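Hey team,

Filing this mostly as a record. A colleague (T.K.) asked me to run one chain through the structure pipeline before their review meeting, and I want the input and output archived in the tracker in case anyone asks later how it was produced. No errors, nothing strange. Just documentation.

Input sequence:
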Amino acid sequence: MKKYLLLFCLMALVQIGIAGTMPSNDTYKTVMSDSVVVEFGKSGKVVIIVDSKEDFEKLKLMNINQIIRELDLEENEDSGELTIVEIKKKDGTTKEVVKVREDWEETEVYIGGMRILVDESGANTKVRVESGMKKNNDPPFRTYFNVDLGVNNYLNGEGKFPTSDNPYAVKGWGSWNVGINWMAAQRISKGFYWDFGLGFNFYNFKFENRDFQAVRGDDMIDFVQRTDVDGFKSKISASYIMAMTMLELDFGKMNDNGRKGLRIAAGPYAGYRLGGQSKYVYRELGGSGRKKDKQNTGLYLNNFRYGIRGELGIGRVKFFTNYDLNTLFQDEKGPELNPITFGIVF
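Output structure:
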């Protein structure tokens, strides 16, 4: 099957080249007088140009198999890919024009933006031609950047979200989590990857009850109700340098559907705290502009954080969840709270 696909590729390329470079009808007639024309299908033609009678006599002695052998093509034994035509650019890189991939009973041929799939797994051979497609590159190793954007909350010792009667209860909208990550993906097998990376993570917890301020006590963090001012915003924020690793299953790649399939990933992460503070925005009761009160409450936060991350991708959209297995505050330095984040990966 491969040799016929190779011949088809060559015929298609010659046809495209002749159509794009033929200057006029008169010139076409002149060329045809020193050429061999092979017709296929309803309108396909392959034109082989010879410059001398000696070359023409040699051409008559060649068959399809010999023409293919004369190409002296090398096959990639690991991937089963066979590059037929490539263009070398000025910067030293190459652009593949025609490539063939054989995978047991399935053969794929890429010609520019066209994909030909031959399936011989069943009783009958199936051929599908798809135009306007590009090959989905799936390199064995790649690096990339992504950004996490989510909202924070935390679970108490009973595994529940704190209720509004607690001074540290979180207001969902405004408790942002932002992460900037440098990631790498190592392909283990088709559709199965090992992801790992480093990044910076900034998160804050905006209190639902803005009358309470988190302040630094003598030996622990205190939540003080401010009745002397009119509070507008109260929160705790922290920043971390992070490391993470995950195992990912890409069902789209497994089924040759690209990004159209479902993707799931999960794995541990760990981080080291860079900073932490509380912020309280208020206005005097008698009337004044907004004022800010910031305190270094980081000394009561855990310096290390570790947990489990999960990702779910559908098409080009990817969601993530982070759950810290250790508490936000040090033991007996604050309430027992385990941070949790929900968001989207860009």
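Quick notes for T.K.: Residues 14-33 have pLDDT under 50 and may be disordered. The helical segments are 2-21, 25-32, 53-60, 64-71, 251-254.
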